[in-house]
């Protein structure tokens, strides 16, 4: 099965007609018909049957579908890699960030970057750490920001800073002293549960599982941002990373350090053995400065 056969197979699956497949591939309908016929001739069996004016995949085609789609995805990945290599000499700022950092920290740094590099090309995407690794390896992004340590021979990580886990609560929950909150003070209190299956989520659940009586958790969420929103709406407290708790006053919530302390590192992630450009180095410096000012200083 040749690459062009894979393209007509995938396009026909998507469109359901040869006219639609031809439009996807930017070829004529007769050319699409001929290409599909050639594919079926080479394979020795039909891939589609015509049913009430549309093409329906055959049993034999169904057996090929998963494998063909994987090959097609690999081709798309190869195309993206080639495009990234073509653009590599332009040194844009291409950042992939976990969602936690994308609402406040990263936009603030980008605002400063635009003031200093007005003509720079900037691309921002949000991904979880596993997808971030793929984005960096295929050169769709050049810098990743994550709370997870990534172990891969093609990846280099450097901690930008580390700060303790915060307890966040609705406005007026505590007095104004700003004192840390001992973990035992969570006993029997209403809390938003974090069901995230990452290292931080597991650490937070382990940290509070021996509290007696246990916190009253009636709402479970997958993301720290959603926990913050529910806290702002008055549903109780939540344990979140320090970066989610930044600028707590803007949402009318309180944030305190949890004791005993659980420090959470933020990693700058890039490809091993590659030097960062001037704008990329400046971006990381701005991120680090903002974190030090907000969380530590």
TrEMBL record:
InterPro entries: LysR_HTH_N, LysR_subst-bd, WH-like_DNA-bd_sf, WH_DNA-bd_sf. Residues 1-58 form the HTH lysR-type domain. Gene3D superfamilies: 3.40.190.290, Winged helix-like DNA-binding domain superfamily/Winged helix DNA-binding domain. GO terms for biological process: lysine biosynthetic process via diaminopimelate; positive regulation of gene expression. The keyword Lipid biosynthesis does not apply. Keywords: DNA-binding, Transcription, Transcription regulation. One of its GO terms (molecular function) is DNA-binding transcription factor activity. It comes from the Bacteria. Belongs to the LysR transcriptional regulatory family. This is LysR family transcriptional regulator. It comes from Marilutibacter maris. The lineage of its organism: Bacteria, Pseudomonadati, Pseudomonadota, Gammaproteobacteria, Lysobacterales.
């Amino acid at each position: 099965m040749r690459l062009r056969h894979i393209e007509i197979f995938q396009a026909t699956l998507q469109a359901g007609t040869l006219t639609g497949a031809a439009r996807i591939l930017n070829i004529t309908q007769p050319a699409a018909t001929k290409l599909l016929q050639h594919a079926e001739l080479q394979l020795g069996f039909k891939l589609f049957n015509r049913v009430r004016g549309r093409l329906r995949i055959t049993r034999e085609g169904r057996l090929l579908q998963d494998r063909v789609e994987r090959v097609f995805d690999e081709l798309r990945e190869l195309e993206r890699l080639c495009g990234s290599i073509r653009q590599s000499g332009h040194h844009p700022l291409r950042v992939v960030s976990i969602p936690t950092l994308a609402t406040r920290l990263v936009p603030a740094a980008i605002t400063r970057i635009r003031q200093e590099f007005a003509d720079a090309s900037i691309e921002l995407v949000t991904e979880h750490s596993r997808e971030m690794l793929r984005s960096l390896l295929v050169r769709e992004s050049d810098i990743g920001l994550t709370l997870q340590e990534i172990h891969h021979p093609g990846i280099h990580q450097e901690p930008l800073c580390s700060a303790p886990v915060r307890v966040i609560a609705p406005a007026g929950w505590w007095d104004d002293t700003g004192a840390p909150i001992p973990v035992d003070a969570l006993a029997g209190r209403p809390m938003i549960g974090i069901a995230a299956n990452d290292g931080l989520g597991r650490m937070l659940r382990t940290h509070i599982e021996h509290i007696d009586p246990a916190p009253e958790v009636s709402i479970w969420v997958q993301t720290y941002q959603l926990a913050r929103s529910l806290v702002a709406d008055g549903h109780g407290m939540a344990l979140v990373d320090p970066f989610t708790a930044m600028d707590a006053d803007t949402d009318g919530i309180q944030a305190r350090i949890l004791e005993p302390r659980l420090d959470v590192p933020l990693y700058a992630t890039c490809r091993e053995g590659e030097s960062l450009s001037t704008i990329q180095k400046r971006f990381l410096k701005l991120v680090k400065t903002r974190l030090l000012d907000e969380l530590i200083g």
